[in-house]
Amino acid sequence: MSILATIKDHSGRIYRGIQALLLLSIGAAAFGAFDISRNLPSGGAFAVSSLATGLALLALMYMRSSVVHRLRSAEAAEAEKHHFLTRDAMTGAMTRRYFLEALRDSLGTMRDRREATLLLIDVDHFKQLNDTFGHQFGDLALVHLVKTSERVFAGGMVGRLGGDEFGVIIPHGDLAAINKDIRQLLDTMRAGKSHEGKTIPLSISVGVALAPAHASNTAELMLVADLALYESKAAGRGRVTVFDEEMLSDKRYRRLVERELRAAVYLGELELHYQPIVNPDGSAYALEGLIRWRHPVSRADLAGRVHPHRRTLDPDRHARRMGV
To answer: Which of 34, 50, 72, 233 has its CA 20 to 30 A from that of 216?
Structure first.
């Protein structure tokens, strides 16, 4: 039910009561005027009219107060709903969906490209942290990472993309300044977080991608930033790597396909189809199951925009064939 419908339903009886009181007031006033014209006492009629008018005014004031209260309650509920949809409940960072929308807006349009930088941050050995110090400390470490990132990248936007994976949108492409800030973030995390009287050092890996230099839309920028993050992890963790086209090797490409395939399972982009396997005489003796990958980014788009010499991401080529 809409806000207006709720107010109307709540105030309907009061509104009808006010109408009745006003009609009574008008009727009493008219009756008093009629008595005056006939030289009859009219005090009682005017008293009834005044009483009915006063009650109507009081009812109007109550209805106004009620409507204002309900509007404020609805506004507060809408603000709470917006916060729930856009902010991660534990860390306070943007939710993944809201972060990706903000990233798309930061990149501008086809005609008006804007400079922006995407950082992907992963907490190193997060499972071991949870196993060793408990999930409560793991949660504190994530909150610490978000608060520190918001402080270091004052003009940026921080979002939670997964369990221990975060993203930062920086509205410029000054790589020297960004590297300086990332070093500060790495040092702050290495300084550790206090827990039960001990200071426990933390380590993060960072991947960096620039728009429009490395990619020009949200999906591509996320892909190349993830390749840079993977390079940081492969090189020993606890470091930052800026995307480079040399990363688009077969090994990195397989990492890309694996990550996108996991996302495809979660997002329902895989479609199951069956086709018969027939004998030479045309009779069917088995069925073949085919999984088709409906990837949201076109093959030509990935091949042409991410890297002009890059092998095409072909979902059909990676289809799984299963005998049934």
So the answer is: 233
275, two tokens: 């086709």
Pairing of strands 270-278, 284-293: antiparallel
User: What strand order describes the sheet that includes 284-293?
Assistant: 270-278, 284-293, 321-323
Residue 169 to residue 149: CA distance in whole angstroms: 11
- Cα–Cα nearest to 241, from 223, 254, 226: 226
* Contacts made by residues 175-183, CB under 8 angstroms, sequence distance 24+: 175/117, 175/208, 175/210, 175/242, 178/117, 178/119, 178/208, 179/240, 179/242, 181/152, 181/153, 182/119, 182/206, 182/208, 182/240, 183/240
Give pTM, 2 decimals: 0.58
Digit-coded pLDDT (tens) for 59-70? 667 667 776 777
φ, ψ of residue 203 in degrees (nearest 5): -130, 140
CA distance 27 to 48: 9
Please tell me whether the peptide bond between 171 and the residue prior to it is cis, using omega within 30 degrees of 0: no
- pLDDT per position as a tens digit, 79-136: 566 556 688 989 999 999 899 999 999 998 777 888 999 999 999 999 999 999 999 9
